């Protein structure tokens, strides 16, 4: 350590720690031995309390000297623990005590070591807290990934599955909107498959609308081409289009989802309430989630293809066995008629009797000579009874059109399981909680054609009865069933 040789000469104090830099101090200063201990004791306390360092140093030197310890505004000093602030200690003399320079220098060194120790302890504590937060974030990310991958087990429909995934991910990120969209080949519309959104920021899904590709073609092309997450904000060149303004998008984070087969999907989030800056960690996690969603889509596509194949087999079997008399339709293909002569609600056992009587009166008043009219009424009674018994109720519609009477019975039950479909429709006496039982055989004998659409949201049975000529039970296929014991 260099000292001054005469009054008024400045002395340069050595750097006592790589975390601190002490520059110039004066040669004349008054110091008291008792004050040195006070300075040393209070160093870490002052740092912890946030008191200005210059205050306690100044108090410690009560002899009248002025000592300032300030954080230097220049570049920070590098150390093995990173970057630490630079402190400059300035001593301004009031008295001429040349012999005190070495003693003051030692005192300043003690103080700076206290400061350095406190800084290192604080940095270690902050580092430990940061590591703990990182571990907690990783744990939360792991849990979200596990939830996404296990979501399919508790959701029956593909739409519900996608909605649940969007809800989990939006909640984790704290975004205003999370969505999954796709574009069919050759289509100029983007279809929002699922969307979870903050009530203040509804998107295209809530509005029941598709999104035009044209205003965002450049943005869409970049997203589809990229295999990494992309972030855009309201100031990005790609964002200057109607889509950002229409849906109040202030920042946008998205990633392409690539199942093994089929077209590319896009999964992403919007922040509408403020211009969010997405971190690299958030981008990396969204990328991982994109892979998880791709796995979910692959599972769903495989499952859906297998289900469609099974349903087609059932359709073909039923059509072949009934020689075309019974046709299996997809859920939703049989809908409520626009105009019906009969519309009866079945909500109780007494409603069954009332609906059957109403149908019978209408039928014989409109078509008094209908072949086997009693059999037709019996078939209708079986259908509405099954709707009440197995689905808790339903509705009967009937109308006359050209050469046939039509009756449609709809319910909101759980439908007929595909594996039970052929047995429930073709085996007399076969019954499960969701089948139509023996009544189905009666319906097949009475009707010239029967169409069935069933799914998790309900079952619809439409029967057609000829009003002239040969009755349904006299048809060749009916005689074949009778000879077979059906």
Characterization of the model:
It is a single chain. It contains twelve helices and 18 strands. With 486 residues, the chain is an alpha+beta fold. It has three domains: 11-123, no CATH class; 155-303, Beta-Lactamase; 322-483, 2-Layer Sandwich (Heat Shock Protein 90). Strands 9-8-7-12-11-10 form a six-stranded antiparallel sheet. Helix 3 (101-150) packs parallel to helix 7 (280-321) and helix 8 (349-366) runs antiparallel to helix 9 (373-391). It starts with 10 loop residues before the first strand and ends with a helix. 32% of the residues are buried. Mean pLDDT is 71; it is low at 1-56, 58-105, 431-437 and 475-486.
Q: How would you write the strand order of the largest sheet?
A: 9-8-7-12-11-10
Largest sheet: 6 strands, antiparallel
Second CATH tier, the architecture of the largest domain: 2-Layer Sandwich
The CATH topology annotation of the largest domain reads as Heat Shock Protein 90
Which runs of at least 5 residues are low in confidence (pLDDT < 50)? 1-56, 58-105, 431-437, 475-486
Helix content: 40-55%
User: What's the number of domains?
Assistant: 3
Set down the secondary structure blueprint.
Layout: E1 11-12, E2 24-25, H1 33-49, H2 53-60, E3 66-71, E4 77-79, E5 82-84, E6 87-92, H3 101-150, H4 158-173, E7 177-182, E8 189-197, E9 211-212, H5 217-225, E10 230-233, H6 242-246, E11 251-257, E12 265-271, H7 280-321, E13 326-329, E14 342-346, H8 349-366, H9 373-391, E15 394-401, E16 404-411, H10 418-426, H11 439-446, E17 449-455, E18 458-466, H12 476-483
Parallel strand pairs: 13-17
Antiparallel strand pairs: 1-2, 3-6, 4-5, 7-8, 7-12, 8-9, 10-11, 11-12, 14-15, 15-16, 16-18, 17-18
Helix pairs in contact: 1-2, 1-3, 3-4, 3-7, 7-10, 8-9, 9-11
């Amino acid at each position: 350590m260099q000292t001054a040789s005469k009054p008024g000469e400045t002395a340069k104090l050595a750097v006592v720690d790589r975390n601190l830099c002490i520059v110039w101090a004066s040669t004349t200063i008054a110091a008291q031995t008792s004050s040195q201990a006070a300075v040393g004791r209070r160093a870490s306390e002052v740092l912890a309390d946030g008191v200005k360092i210059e205050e306690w140093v100044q108090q410690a030197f009560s002899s009248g000297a002025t000592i300032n310890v300030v954080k230097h505004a220049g570049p920070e000093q590098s150390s093995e623990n990173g970057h630490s602030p630079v402190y400059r200690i300035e001593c301004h003399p009031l008295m001429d005590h040349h012999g005190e320079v070495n003693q003051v220098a030692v005192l300043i060194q003690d103080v700076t070591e206290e400061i350095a120790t406190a800084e290192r302890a604080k940095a270690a504590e902050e580092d430990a807290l940061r590591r703990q937060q990182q571990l907690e974030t990783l744990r939360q990310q792991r849990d979200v990934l596990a939830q996404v991958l296990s979501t399919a087990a508790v959701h029956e429909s593909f739409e519900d599955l996608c909605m649940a995934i969007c809800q989990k991910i939006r909640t984790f990120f704290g975004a205003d909107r999370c969505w999954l969209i796709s574009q069919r080949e050759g289509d100029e519309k983007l279809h929002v498959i699922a969307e979870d959104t903050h009530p203040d920021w509804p998107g295209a899904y809530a509005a029941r609308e598709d999104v035009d590709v044209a205003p965002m073609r450049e943005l869409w092309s970049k997203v589809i081409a990229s295999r990494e997450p992309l972030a855009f904000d309201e100031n990005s060149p790609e964002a200057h289009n109607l889509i950002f303004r229409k849906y109040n998008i202030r920042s946008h984070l998205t990633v392409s989802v690539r199942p093994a087969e089929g077209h590319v999907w896009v999964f992403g989030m919007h922040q509408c309430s403020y211009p969010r800056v997405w971190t690299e960690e958030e981008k990396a996690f969204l990328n991982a989630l994109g892979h998880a969603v791709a796995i979910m889509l692959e599972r769903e596509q495989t499952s859906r293809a297998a289900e469609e194949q099974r349903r087609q087999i059932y359709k073909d079997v039923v059509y072949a066995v009934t020689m075309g008399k019974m046709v299996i339709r997809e859920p939703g293909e049989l809908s409520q008629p626009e105009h019906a002569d009969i519309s009866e609600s079945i909500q109780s056992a007494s409603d069954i009797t009332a609906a059957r009587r109403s149908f019978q009166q209408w039928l014989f008043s409109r078509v008094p000579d209908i072949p086997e009219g009693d059999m037709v009424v019996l078939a209708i009674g079986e259908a509405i009874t099954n709707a009440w018994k197995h689905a808790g109720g339903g509705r009967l519609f009937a109308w006359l059109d050209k050469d046939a009477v039509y009756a449609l019975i709809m319910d909101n039950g759980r439908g007929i399981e595909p594996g039970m479909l052929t047995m429930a429709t073709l085996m007399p006496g076969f019954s499960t909680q969701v089948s139509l039982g023996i009544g189905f055989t009666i319906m097949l004998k009475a009707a010239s054609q029967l169409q069935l659409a069933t799914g998790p949201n309900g079952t619809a049975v439409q029967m057609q009865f000829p009003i002239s000529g040969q009755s349904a039970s006299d048809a060749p296929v009916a005689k074949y069933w009778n000879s077979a014991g059906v």
